[in-house]
Amino acid sequence: MSETALPAAPHIVIFDSGVGGLSILQAARQQLPHCRFSYLSDNGGFPYGNKPANQVIERACQVLEAFAAQVQDVDIYVVACNTASTLALPRLRRHFTRPVVGVVPAIKPAAEISKNRYIGLLATPGTVKRSYTKRLIQEFAHDCQTVCVGSSALVELAERKLRQRPVDSQELLAILAPLLTASKTNPTPDRLDTLVLACTHFPLLAAEIQQVLGEHIRLIDSGSAIARRIEYWTERIEPIGLDPKLPTYAWFTKTAPEIAELSAALPAFGFSESRILR
Ligand code: DGL
After folding, report:
1. Could you say which protein family the record assigns here (predicted)?
2. Is 114 a member of any domain?
3. Sheet holding 218-220, edge to edge
4. How far apart, in whole angstroms, are the C-alpha atoms of residue 230 and residue 233?
5. CB of 20 sitting under 6 A from ligand 1
6. Residue 144 lies in a domain
7. Which of 32, 51, 187, 200 has the fewest beta carbons under 10 Å from its own?
8. pTM exceeds cut of 0.85
């Protein structure tokens, strides 16, 4: 009896400096269950959020190019890192012939829904100071008050959470203090009501952030928008087309202890095995 070949499934690689891109992967898997997903964490270059722009560009390009040389059936590249996307997308798009999807701060949708015209931006220090981010605010939220908080410590908290370590609520409170002030001290019609999670690590802490700031604050992340963008490309490309049942992996750029510490979390994101990028 001859076996009927399964249709080719697009292979998508989700890339971040650390575990943050898993928040994008979750949204993408949900929307595109027929696709094959690999995850690529540059844990050897982590963190990106406090590094100079040229260093982030060089590193992100170098890692993705090394991945493409080793895993040759990738259909769509997703830079699931705001810090890298706001800097490296033009160069990556010039380099790769396949689509490169990026994630940028969701300032436009936040400004569209903010009733009080007061939005917060929570990102890495790098993303907060980038001219790309300032231009987004200027273009889409010029009629809104904005409060921007850049925090590398919050990125670390998300990394720790995925390693099954408790999230320090005092530390979280200290990081979120300027947003808490903006959301509580003014009378209702004037206070902050919408917060952009402009670092892919932060949706992994959405429940904890919501608990500190209160249910009246709308948290906006880029997960479903990126999933829709990936879907757009899956409908327009011809997959390279390896067997859709071939396993995919969570890839890292540096060996343990990071990887061993994540072994309890990774299966929930669909990965039972990891690999090291050479
Ligand atoms: N997850 C990354 C982002 O979206 C950055 C984390 C870091 O490496 O600092 O910006």
Report:
1. Belongs to the aspartate/glutamate racemases family.
2. yes
3. 145-150, 118-123, 194-197, 218-220
4. 5
5. yes
6. yes
7. 187
8. yes
